[in-house]
UniProtKB/TrEMBL annotation:
Similarity-based family: Belongs to the SMP-30/CGR1 family.
Organism phylogeny: Bacteria, Bacillati, Actinomycetota, Actinomycetes, Micrococcales
Ranges for domain SMP-30/Gluconolactonase/LRE-like region: 13-266
Keyword hit for Ribosomal protein: no
Pfam families: SGL
Molecular functions (GO terms): hydrolase activity
Protein name in the entry: Gluconolactonase
Originating organism: Nostocoides jenkinsii Ben 74
Gene3D superfamilies documented for this protein: TolB, C-terminal domain
Residue spans crossing the bilayer: none
Domain of life, per lineage: Bacteria
């Protein structure tokens, strides 16, 4: 097991990390903005997102897309610095929109919470919630580069982090409350088919949150309920682990050689615990 070190402290709650242009880009829920951080720890604010940012991606022309959680929209940062609505998901997202991923064409796939998980966690324990198949059942939507919105996959339980593997031919989605990574074949027109379990995380009781694929085809999974990022091979074998100082909720791979693992960590995901407390961190390890 490798132990991570801290690159950046003082976050509200980091999410949606992506390595691009020599920097880590990330959202901070409770500072309500998108930031970058260099490998020397220098942080730069990119844009404010008042309704709470999460997933990040880019159109083919380089314009940033960001999930705006509370108003259930995906926003676009145009070249003039203006933040505009790229797609309104309020008719299809059952609760806060969450992580997203974009392919090479700028087509985006977006998940959502499905329901108010944190409110439920104040009433029921985690095993009871996990055993309730009705909890957080929702869908992943696809947004075309022109902003058209279609349903990509139904019957997902808290679809969370996503990764593209097999040169973009396979989309893997973390279903947090099913304790599994679910894969789809991704066609040239963006449609998804051949749904299957890529790996179960249930044996380790890992609730998969953010995920990141590595060049060898493994997928690193932020454990959410634990202070670790765990590497899975297809089929469910655990093939690596990075220990973090607090619970890991999102991850990305990057750095000059693509071997730096970035983890967004916090003591909890409950806003009542972390909002305004500056307890979030970005931690790094070489993998």
């Amino acid at each position: 097991m490798t132990a991570a070190t801290v690159l950046l402290e003082g976050l509200g709650f980091g999410e949606g990390p992506r390595w691009r242009d020599g920097k880590l880009w990330f959202s901070d829920f409770y500072r309500r903005a998108v930031y970058t951080v260099d490998l020397d720890g220098t942080e730069t604010k990119i844009v404010d997102v008042p309704q709470q940012p999460s997933g990040l991606g880019w159109l083919a022309d380089g314009r940033l897309l960001v999930s705006s959680m509370r108003d259930r929209k995906v926003l676009r940062l145009d070249n003039d610095g203006g933040l505009v609505v790229h797609a309104d998901l309020s008719g299809l997202a059952d609760f806060h929109v969450n992580d997203l991923i974009t392919d090479a064409t700028g087509r985006a796939y977006v998940g959502n919470f499905g329901y108010d998980l944190h409110a439920d966690m104040h009433v029921r324990d985690i095993p009871t919630i996990l055993g309730d198949e009705s909890a957080a059942r929702t869908r992943v939507v696809r947004i075309e580069p022109d902003g058209e919105v279609v349903i990509a996959a139904e019957d997902m339980r808290f679809p969370n982090g996503m990764a593209l593997i097999d040169s973009g031919r396979t989309l893997v989605v973390a279903e947090t409350l099913r304790l599994q990574l679910t894969a789809f074949d991704l066609a040239a027109d963006g449609s998804l088919s051949n749904r299957r379990v890529w790996a179960s995380t249930a044996p380790q009781m890992v609730a998969p949150d953010g995920i990141a694929a590595d060049p060898e085809g493994g997928i690193w999974v932020a454990a959410a309920l634990g202070a670790a990022v765990v590497r899975y091979a297809e089929g469910g074998e655990v093939t690596g682990m990075v220990e973090t100082s607090q619970n890991a909720f999102a991850c990305a791979l990057g750095g000059p050689d693509g071997r730096t693992l970035f983890a967004c960590t916090a003591p909890d995901s409950d806003p009542g615990v972390v909002d305004g407390k500056a307890l979030g961190k970005i931690e790094i390890a070489t993998v």
